[in-house]
UniProtKB/TrEMBL annotation:
It comes from Limimaricola hongkongensis DSM 17492. It comes from the Bacteria. Residues 1-24 form the signal peptide. Keywords: Signal. This is Lipoprotein.
Amino acid sequence: MVQGMKTLALTLCALALSAVSAQAACYADYKAKRDDPLRLHYGVAEISAPCDQPDAAADELRPRLGSDGWSLLAIVSLFGDDGLEKRRDSAGDYYLRY
């Protein structure tokens, strides 16, 4: 009985830790354009899609950008909190805007 309780407790701890890691922040840096006149921008956006699925990130980001007349050109990369600050200056006004 005691061994079964220990196993259950370890299993619950493992599940709790995996849930926390699954909810880790994920960001995409991307390139977008607007026509007439042609304008381009590089930006960084937080996404809820898994951080290993660029197609899902693109699907999530397209409507956000489209609401302001921008078209997504490419997802450059997906990354976590550790890559966020070093992209702030490059993204400028489009840092976490969408």
